[in-house]
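About this split. The held-out portion is used to measure sequence recovery: a designer receives only the structure tokens and must propose an amino acid at every position. Recovery is the fraction of positions where the proposal matches the reference. Here is one held-out target exactly as it appears in the evaluation file.
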């Protein structure tokens, strides 16, 4: 093929940070393959994400709190303001809590 176009790809993007989910450079964390499937040997994902098990297929899921709207910090049942939201009667709290 012609070597006239040896320049870098025009839209080459320098990732300054690794993917927060799998700690690998080269993709945005919302495009991380771990969000679809986590390899067998991986037991940890980045901060703010958790591993969910969907019928034997493990995948990473971004933690988000629907109560206070924070992402990558905690789940709503772990919300630091949970008692406040309970006191306010937040509609989301009517759902069945996870079993003890
Ligand atoms: Zn990734
Ligand atoms: Zn919260």
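Reference sequence for scoring:
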């Amino acid at each position: 093929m012609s070597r006239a176009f040896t320049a870098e790809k025009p839209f080459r993007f320098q990732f300054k940070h690794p993917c927060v989910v799998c700690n690998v450079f080269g993709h945005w964390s919302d495009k991380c393959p771990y969000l679809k499937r986590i390899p067998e040997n991986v037991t940890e994902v980045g901060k703010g994400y958790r591993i969910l098990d969907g019928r034997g297929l493990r995948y990473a899921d971004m933690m988000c709190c629907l109560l206070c709207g924070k992402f990558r910090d905690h789940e709503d049942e772990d919300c630091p303001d949970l008692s406040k939201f309970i006191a306010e009667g937040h509609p989301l709290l009517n759902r069945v809590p996870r079993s003890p």
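Annotator remark: Residues 64-100 form one domain.
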